[in-house]
Amino acid sequence: MAVTKNNFFGLVGETPQIQQLKSVVQQVAPTDITVLVTGESGTGKELIANAIHSLSSRRDKSLITVNCGAIPEGIFESEVFGHVRGAFTSADRTRKGYFETAHGSSIFLDEIGEMPLEAQAKVLRVLEMGEFMKVGSSHNEKVDVRVIAATNKDLSEAVSTGRFRQDLFFRLKAVNIYLPPLRNRKDDIPLLVEHFLADTCQRNDIPCPHITPEAMNLLKNAYWEGNVRELKHFLDSLVILERGRTLDEHIVGGYLRQNERRTPHLPVHVPKGSPELDRELLVSLLLDLKRDIGDIKNHLQIAGSANLPATWMPGREIIQTEPQVTLEEMEKEQIHKSLQEVRGNRRKAAEILGISERTLYRKLKEYNIS
C-alpha cells in the first residue's frame, strides 16, 4: 500500500497520537522484537501489523494472519501448529500449521486473548526457543518467525483471573503499541472522511460528493463506538444511497440518528466484581430482558386501569422488596434455559445465546453446570 503524508499503510491521521504511533512502528519494524498491539475493536490493529511487516526484512514473504477467536478450541493446536498423520481419527496425512507456514516471515495473532491456555504454552516456547511440536509428534521443529499479536481485551485482567499466562503476557508486551479510540482523536476525522469517500467512490465508479462544514462537524462529534471501522461503513452507505447529492447536515444528521436507533445504548450497571462477563452474553441477556419488559407493558395495557387498586394514584412509586438479581444469576438461568430448550445440545445452545461454543464451555465450567 502506498505511503503518503497522511496515509501510513492505511493508517490515516496527523494528530500527535498517530504521529507518535507511526514513529514507534518505524523504529520496531526493522527488528525481530515481539509487538503487542492493543486498542478497542475497529481502531486498526491489523493495519499496524501490516505496516510492521511491510517495513521489516521479512516483507518479501506474506504476513500470516490468525484470528484466535475464530478457531474452535478443540482444533486450535492442530490449526496453529499442525499435526502428524494418525494424530487423531481424521488425521490421514501430516499437515502444516500456521507457524510452519509463516517460517521466514511474520505471524499476526489477532485476538490473542481468546487463545486456549494449552496453546499459550506452545506459543511461549516458540518465542523463547524458536521451536514447536506438532500435534501427535514426539520431536520439536525449528521455526524462524516474527510474532505480532493484538487484542481488544485487558490482558492484565485476564492474567489475574487465570485466563491468560503471565509469562506469555510479559513476553508479548516487549513493545506495546496502543491505538487510541476515534473519539480521542477527533481532529483526524476530516482526513479519514476524505480518504474513505475517495476510496468508496473510486471502487464504485461514482463522483465524489461535496460534504459541508456543518456535516463534517456532525461527523467529528459523533461517538463512533465501532471506531474507524464504523465510520468507514457509515460513509460507504451514505455515499451509495445519496449518490450525486451534496452531503449537508440534514442528510448526515438523519443517517446518524438512524444509526443510533440501530445500536441503542442501554443503561446497564455492571458489578465491579464481574469484569470477566462476556459482552456478547450480556447483550443477549439484556435483549431478553427488554423483550420481557415489553411483554409486561402489553399485559398492563390489556388489563386496563379499571383493575388497578383503589389506592393507586398516577405518579406514585411502586416499591419492590424482592432481592435484586445479579448478572451472574441471570447468566446462569439463561444458560440453563437454553440447554433445556435444545435437550442439552451445547452447540445449539451457544447459537441461541449468540455466543461462541468456547465461551459456553467456559461458562458451564465457571458455574459448575453439568
Automatic annotation (TrEMBL):
GO terms for molecular function: ATP binding; sequence-specific DNA binding. Pfam families: AAA_lid_14, HTH_8, Sigma54_activat. InterPro entries: AAA+_ATPase, AAA_lid_NorR, Homeodomain-like_sf, HTH_Fis, P-loop_NTPase, Sigma_54_int, Sigma_54_int_dom_ATP-bd_1. GO terms for biological process: regulation of DNA-templated transcription. Keywords: ATP-binding, Nucleotide-binding, Transcription, Transcription regulation. Residues 11-240 form the Sigma-54 factor interaction domain. The keyword Cell division does not apply. SMART domains: AAA. PANTHER family: TRANSCRIPTIONAL REGULATORY PROTEIN (PTHR32071). This is Sigma-54-dependent Fis family transcriptional regulator. It comes from candidate division LCP-89 bacterium B3_LCP. The lineage of its organism: Bacteria, Pseudomonadati, Bacteria division LCP-89.
